[in-house]
């Protein structure tokens, strides 16, 4: 899978910890831990990606592994190769056959309430990110 034309790419050998934000589409195929905010733009999480972050975007497509809450004002696509542990807020949701999703869905709201999350615990998050993909 290749990044969409015009989007910024984070390659599979790149590790980022902290806050990621921007005003353009982003393709992640590496490791990201923290927060990703692209309020008016799309995020694609590639098949090699391991993301441990709360995500705030317009549109989201997941092919890799994500642990954290997903907030979208547009659409969320969880592809067949994806593993997602966290809650989804807002957006239109599609989950392909063979994808793994553990969490709750709140299609009416783009914001979560503190203490109201079923996202994986820190130990579960670390295990998910370290497990090799089959």
TrEMBL record:
Signal peptide: none annotated. It comes from the Bacteria. Residues 104-134 are annotated as: Disordered. InterPro entries: BacA/B. It holds the Pfam family Bactofilin. Belongs to the bactofilin family. This is Cytoskeletal protein CcmA (Bactofilin family). The lineage of its organism: Bacteria, Pseudomonadati, Acidobacteriota, Terriglobia, Terriglobales.
